[in-house]
Amino acid sequence: MAYRPKKWSVPAIIIMSLLGIGIIYGVLTDMRSFLIPIIVFGLIYVLYKFPPDRWRSRSGSASPQVRPGNRSQPAKRPKSQRTPFRVIEGGKEDDDLPKYH
Length: 101
Prior knowledge:
By secondary structure, this protein is mainly alpha-helical. It has helices at residues 10-29, 35-49. It has a domain at 10-53. The radius of gyration is 33 Å and the shape is elongated. The chain crosses the membrane at residues 12-28, 34-50.
């Protein structure tokens, strides 16, 4: 029996093979119908791989540059004082009738 990875199911293999056959047939018969989608997906791929500087995240995966002479420890925040839990005594009128009736 042929080796098949566990993550590929039989319906997925059938759909992918029909998709591949359709793309090959479409390219062979009329290349112009595939020109615009190829350009759009190519542009999306290029912008994904090489985003413009204004779109890049400032706090992304890039590590911040540390200057050798400026190694100060971050300022420690003072711990807030814990206040004990207080119960405020209140009264609730136990009327069976609604207030606005």
